[in-house]
Design brief:
Length: about 220
Amino acid sequence: MKREIIITSDGSTTIHLPEWNEQYHSKHGAIQEAYHVFIKNGLDCFKNKSKISILEIGFGTGLNCFITYLEAQQKKLQIDYTGIEAYPVKQEEIEKLNYVIALKVENEQQVFDKMHLLSWNEQHQLSTNFSLIKKEQFFEDINEINKFDLIYFDAFAARVQPELWTENMFNKMYKALKQNGILVTYSAKGSVRRAMQEVGFIVERLPGPPGKREMLRAKKSYVKP
């Protein structure tokens, strides 16, 4: 499948798949979307918790991981980050992404590079307060139980990969979360919200990032029998 590096509306890059008319991040602003969905409405919900375990569904370009790392350094958070990706992005594509420059954190270029060069399926320390394990596996094979405080659900849209937005998938996410854990996603589709509710999540609609009216945040409020 053909892949192109494109510039989004906030000046940051993403990968575009013409055959699907789909991007790894919003064409309305990759960095803006990532901060709005995953930091403002996800990580910032844990302001009173110093140690946070995060699962990302769709490690992709590493943007969400990188901005979470930057937040951890700024706010002195201890983060254990797990990124799942079935089809890792090629290194030559990573080298064309401009996130370090767009975020004005040139002093962290080495960290961004290291994130992508680290071996898969092993835990590594990016810093004293940020560990990362990248797992090369299909999302359907996730089977963790009560392990994560927060899930970044950043899979390709249901329009192109509907099998990733089903009750079966969200049941796996529900089980993977700790009590009172949350899942955030850019999607606001009614079918996605209903699938989340069916497996036990309490779901709220929130204002979306640029280019989207709404997004979803789901909370695991109780343990199912």
